[in-house]
Amino acid sequence: MGNKELLEKDFKNLLSELNSYKEMLALAQWDMRTKIPKKGVEQRSEVVGFLAEKAHQLETSEKMKYFIDMLKEDTENEIIKKAVLECEENYIRNSKIPLDEYKNYVMLQSKSEAVWQEAREKANFALFQPYLERLVEYNQRFATYWGYEDHIYDALLHNFEPGITTETLDRVFPDLRQAISSLLTKINESSLKPDSSILQSHFPKTDQEEFSKEILNRMGYDFSSGRLDETIHPFAISLNLNDVRITTRYDESDFRTAIFGTIHEGGHALYEQNISEKLASTPLATGTSMGIHESQSLFWENFIGRSKAFWSSHYELFKKFAPTSFQQVPLNEFYQAINEVKASFIRIEADELTYPLHIMIRYELEKLLINGDIKVSDLPNLWNEKMQDYLGIKPPTDREGVLQDIHWAGGDFGYFPSYALGYMYAAQFNHILSREVNVKEAISTGNLGSIKHWLTQNIHQYGKMKKPLQLIEDVTQEKLNPVYLINYLTQKYTDIYRL
Amino acid sequence: MGNKELLEKDFKNLLSELNSYKEMLALAQWDMRTKIPKKGVEQRSEVVGFLAEKAHQLETSEKMKYFIDMLKEDTENEIIKKAVLECEENYIRNSKIPLDEYKNYVMLQSKSEAVWQEAREKANFALFQPYLERLVEYNQRFATYWGYEDHIYDALLHNFEPGITTETLDRVFPDLRQAISSLLTKINESSLKPDSSILQSHFPKTDQEEFSKEILNRMGYDFSSGRLDETIHPFAISLNLNDVRITTRYDESDFRTAIFGTIHEGGHALYEQNISEKLASTPLATGTSMGIHESQSLFWENFIGRSKAFWSSHYELFKKFAPTSFQQVPLNEFYQAINEVKASFIRIEADELTYPLHIMIRYELEKLLINGDIKVSDLPNLWNEKMQDYLGIKPPTDREGVLQDIHWAGGDFGYFPSYALGYMYAAQFNHILSREVNVKEAISTGNLGSIKHWLTQNIHQYGKMKKPLQLIEDVTQEKLNPVYLINYLTQKYTDIYRL
């Protein structure tokens, strides 16, 4: 073995060590959310803290720096080259934060989540305010350490969606907002009013679970590389490429929670399960960004799962698992009901059309906050004003308003835009997919595999080998363009509401 | 803080690091046995290997040696003192084995388990023989590294039951064997023949699970610090004092597997759940030996779970969960049936009386093997001869014979005697318990808590603060004495079989 081969081998060993910590962190997290007994949590939190520190130490170690310097310009192996770049980015970003500050921040995060939980339960923003103020300060400081060109918020966006800036968002969001608003006005004027009460009949958990599993199988989710469990907050998590687990929530009085939740998380899981094995045990073996990840989950949930084609060919199957009351519900009424548009206080309960408005509200507030244009104490009022402005409703308390999401309590500023970006990406991918695959036929013949295959070929297999913007351009031959989502929504709701 | 306090604090931090690795190893193992998807196993094995190496490195590190040297003679803190001694023992034992040999041995173990599995399935001892030969060689060499006074096998016994030697076993086993043989002869001559076919009616899994959970609750197993899952091979595992999980196996045609299995594992779990919180995050926060652990599981399974007092007061409860056929089975016939004596090829299916004979066979063979008096290739024949001699039956193939247990494939020589020791310990503890607590009354009033309380006060709380022999003497005021088990078995089976 030559010197370079030896070096590459040693580098791979270091990556594999890092990966071991990350697999254990993922397992610990999965267990804490699904199986851990109540009293085991305290000690486990310490263990997780220890593992996270170990991983962080490796990522910023002298050893890591050495491999980056030695291999950066001097490897012909494309995977190693990209892995080195990924490690370098992490190294630079992590090294810019003094270790003491990092540790204090991690402790603040974990405390803040508990305080947020209490504040939300009591609908008492004042409890959470001092913590949120410190979290904002940290994020402002980190953003300064990391650096940015135009807007301080760009430094935070970069953590979740590299390449996307406030400039991009300020370009695409207004068009999207206007299109949605105009659709909303027409929908409100429409005489057609879907009746979603027909969906609310008692649907036993075990039957929902069986139907969910059947759909996951048809999507191509591999149960020998994953499993489905039950949690209050559904999620997907990858332990390694051959162990990608999802969870869902069952509401026996409303099956939509479980079915669409399962399809959504299944979309995330398909992404992780179908990354090329060649990337295993490297930092490239995961989704390339939050936005691209969300494009996969939203694609399956909305573009497939809430489509007419899907229910035309799966409604009979559904009725085999569903309560008998559905026998009396015609397909068309069912389809309209699951696509009812109705302004909601809660983001995760929002319909397909109004969902992006929730994201825009958060984005605008975050940007102002991080830029120092508004204070944390201004948030509750501004939130309510924006809800009124965008959605025409005002939350009764901060529980249904500014306190509803956990993200800020975890210090995740710059995360929310990924949800709307993912939605636009999904529409843009869907546009190309529909040209290359006969989607309707694939769905109606139950051959969802051909859709999964296209996604794997064009998106999944690459993991982090391609950055999100490169991926979008490679697949769609253009940059992020909101027009595809606008067209999709216009077409879908014009049809449903006969606009 | 003085120098000594600082030193103790740093030592505790090291122990807590070590504990983090061990908690993660336990979680990984639990997950691999209960939840992991099939294809996730390969990568996980690497992660487990990595974590085990990390823990081993810490246990044999210069840093560990430093704390041992500095604190051994110079601490007034009783817990730290014992923790140092425990670490020193591990340090010395682990350091005596060259790292290369250790690694090769770990790899051999993991390979051997897979080969053993195949060999057992195919009832083909020859497949397994070369691996077993190497495992025996390693164990002989390790025993030499570790050292011993009289018998090489003592060095291996020490790993599982410190203080117990071949001399002890050779003193107690013959008496026990003779007592059992004499009881067996009488039982075979007795006209009373329990009818265990009355137990075999279809008992749905969910009902068995509910009854099992009810009994666990009554035993005092804390579900907020644990959980019950299903596996083919039941086990108990402690992640930390507040997270002690158990599993059981459900056989819908024979409830005994699940019920007695659950009580058995519940006994192990009660031990771990009730260790003093003061020992948390030290190597003392676990059961003191395999034998003492087995004394707790066997105590609950046999002395409580198969007792007349237990079923007199729980049979009505049982019938609420059981198939209706049990309504026709009188308590006495039920009690006789669950205590039927019948020679069995398989150790884990053996009845209470013949169980120790299975252990003696393995002990005698292991001793000869490690001492070099017999060869691995002699095992199948010798096994069958001893089965004939001790139990009067001969296994049809090696699958039901020498290949039945996994222990040797994992290199665990010296482990089996713990099972019989645990049984004798249990009887000896039970003798004192019965003097200090009105056990029959406690059982009949459903107050198993007073039994758990006694076990916690006398045994559980100490964790590894007391070595097994010290514990036995402190609780029973004498050394290991097989007479209590002999008396218990004699009394029980004289009553059941009207001898």
Brief account:
2 copies of one chain form a homodimer. With about 500 residues, chain A is an all-alpha fold.
Largest interface: A-B, 36 and 36 residues
In CATH, the architecture of the largest domain in chain A is Orthogonal Bundle
Biggest sheet of chain A: strands side by side, in what order? 1-3-2
Tally the helices of chain A: 20
Beta-strand percent range of chain A = under 5%
> Alpha-carbon distance between the termini of chain A?
69 Å
CATH top level assignment of the largest domain in chain A: Mainly Alpha
SS-derived structural category of chain A: mainly alpha
Write the topology of this structure.
Two copies of one chain form a homodimer.
Chain A: H1 3-34, H2 41-59, H3 62-71, H4 78-95, H5 99-121, H6 125-146, H7 152-160, H8 166-189, H9 205-219, E1 228-230, E2 236-240, E3 243-248, H10 256-273, H11 290-304, H12 308-321, H13 331-338, H14 355-370, H15 379-391, H16 417-436, H17 439-444, H18 449-458, H19 468-476, H20 483-496
Helix pairs in contact in A: 1-2, 1-3, 3-4, 5-6, 6-7, 8-14, 8-20, 9-10, 10-11, 11-16, 14-15, 14-16, 16-20
Structure notes:
The structure is a homodimer of 499-residue chains. The first copy, chain A, is mainly α and 499 residues long. Chain A has 2 domains: 3-95; 124-499, Neurolysin, domain 3. Helices cover 63% and strands 3% of the residues of chain A. Chain A contains 20 helices and 3 strands. Chain A has helices spanning 3-34, 41-59, 62-71, 78-95, 99-121, 125-146, 152-160, 166-189, 205-219, 256-273, 290-304, 308-321, 331-338, 355-370, 379-391, 417-436, 439-444, 449-458, 468-476, 483-496, and strands spanning 228-230, 236-240, 243-248. A 3-stranded mixed β-sheet of chain A has the order 1-3-2. In chain A, a hairpin with a 2-residue loop joins strand 2 and strand 3 (243-248). In chain A, helix 1 packs across helix 3 and helix 14 (355-370) packs antiparallel against helix 15 (379-391). The first copy, chain A, is globular. The N and C termini of chain A lie far apart (69 Å). Chains A and B meet through helix 1 and helix 2 of A and helix 1 and helix 2 of B.
